[in-house]
Design goal:
Layout (H helix, E strand, L loop, with lengths): L5 H28 L10 H55 L6 H22 L20 E4 L2 E4 L7 E5 L2 E4 L4 H6 L1 E2 L3 E5 L5 E7 L2 H8 L7 E5 L5 E4 L18 E4 L2 E6 L3 E2 L4 E2 L1 E5 L3 E2 L1 H14 L5 H61 L3 H25 L9
Antiparallel strand pairs: 1-2, 3-4, 5-15, 6-14, 7-11, 8-9, 8-14, 10-11, 12-13
Helix pairs in contact: 1-8, 2-3, 2-7, 3-6, 6-7
Length: 408
């Protein structure tokens, strides 16, 4: 025989009602929060998975913000470079116009004035800032302008750093390019660098066969050439080490056009001093670099100062126009190559952004399945639990009134 005391009846009834009430409160919390799992004890396995999914979603959202920042920076740089190309194209048009032999000195000064304006515009583009106020072409020195004017010339003021941003696990993308590489280190045209002659000059200097130039210097890079005038007006060409270079036609003389390593030129009005045993010499720069700013500045200076009243002046002016056009073309090519590179980066950012978006959506769907409450089911459970609690309360009220003393 099992004996049940009044205390057991009261304790069992209260415990039962507390359990039912606890389930009821849990269901009410699920409905109010919209979540099935509000604390780890609700479902330890699901809670652990939800925590991991939240961490993954936070990581993805961080990468998405980085990808958006990278996309904005790259688009801003691409826009700035497009503006630079437009400016250089206008400078090129003015240079072609300046090459017109019928222009007067005043016409050239007018062209020079517009070139100065275009040069200022190009400096403004090269000193573009991002939304945070940093100069995008200054490398790591974002607080300093990329180009500054010193002693009347624009010079690069930043460093050669390149900023990168992580847009996914193990995936980084460069989000900046230093201005020195874009606007400064531009291959220069073949040009006259130095001359020992007071009256002599080189005319018609141009690169006509780039393949022949490379072949002549293999496996080393092309370097300066020295053109010397010897006895009987003979012209010879040496490389930087003093080795003779073959010319076409062989054994040229002053006044005759010739070609060496794919470079065409004519030496004019140069002389040889038999007493000193030396002749005029000219240094031809081949593998030099020229900034776009320097090209425009030299062009402005030449338009303002070179006189065309002599054959030498005419040759210098023609060389100025020819070299400027070649340098401007090289500058445009440098910028276009960078824009192509930017396009590749933007495509990478776009594809990564799409992947991150899909990953975030997939993660949210899985988390929703584990975490989000089914309102129809929860409301049904709430109604049932309310009914059970009410029945338990009524039963307990009736049972609690029973006593053995009622039978005496």
């Amino acid at each position: 025989m099992v004996r049940i005391s009044s205390q057991q009846i009261f304790s069992g009834g209260i415990n039962r009602m507390q359990d039912i009430n606890s389930d009821l409160v849990k269901t009410q919390q699920q409905i109010s929060t919209g979540k099935k799992v509000n604390q780890p004890s609700d479902d330890p396995v699901a809670a652990a998975r939800i925590l991991k999914l939240d961490q993954n979603l936070s990581r993805v959202e961080t990468y998405q913000r980085n990808a958006d920042l990278a996309d904005n920076r790259l688009k801003q740089e691409d826009s700035a470079l497009s503006s630079a190309i437009d400016i250089i194209q206008r400078v090129r048009e003015l240079t072609v116009q300046a090459g017109n032999g019928s222009l007067s000195a005043n016409d050239r000064k007018s062209i020079s004035s517009e070139l100065k304006e275009r040069l200022g515009q190009l400096a403004d583009v090269a000193n573009t800032r991002d939304a945070s106020g940093e100069y995008i072409f200054s490398g790591f020195q974002g607080s300093a302008p990329a180009f500054v004017k010193e002693d009347g010339a624009w010079t690069y003021n930043g460093d050669e750093g390149q900023r990168v941003l992580e847009i996914d696990d193990g995936v980084t993308v460069p989000i900046s390019d230093h201005g020195k590489g874009i606007f400064g280190n531009v291959p220069a045209a073949v040009s006259m660098k130095e001359a020992t002659s007071a009256n002599g000059f080189v005319s018609g200097l141009s690169l006509t066969n780039e393949s022949a130039l490379k072949a002549a210097f293999q496996p080393s890079l092309p370097d300066d050439l020295t053109v010397r005038v010897g006895a009987s007006d003979a012209v010879s060409v040496e490389d930087k080490d003093g080795n003779p270079m073959a010319t076409t036609p062989p054994n040229p003389v002053v006044g005759d056009p010739f070609e060496v390593a794919g470079i065409q030129m004519t030496v004019n009005d140069a002389a040889y001093d038999p007493v000193a045993g030396t002749g005029d010499s000219f240094t031809i720069g081949i593998n030099d670099k020229q900034s776009i700013f320097g090209t425009i500045e030299n062009l402005i200076t030449g338009l303002d100062s070179i006189s065309k009243d002599s054959p030498k002046g005419n040759a210098e002016y023609d060389a100025l126009i020819s070299e400027s056009l070649a340098n401007l073309d090289n500058g445009q090519e440098s910028i276009l190559q960078k824009q192509t590179e930017l396009g590749g980066r933007m495509n990478a950012v776009e594809s990564t952004s799409a992947f991150l978006e899909d990953s975030a959506l997939y993660t949210k769907e899985i988390r929703s399945q584990l975490q989000d409450v089914d309102y129809a089911e929860a409301i049904s459970n709430l109604s049932f639990q309310s009914f059970v609690l009410q029945a338990a309360q009524q039963s307990f009220a009736q049972i609690s009134q029973l006593s053995l003393f009622d039978r005496l």
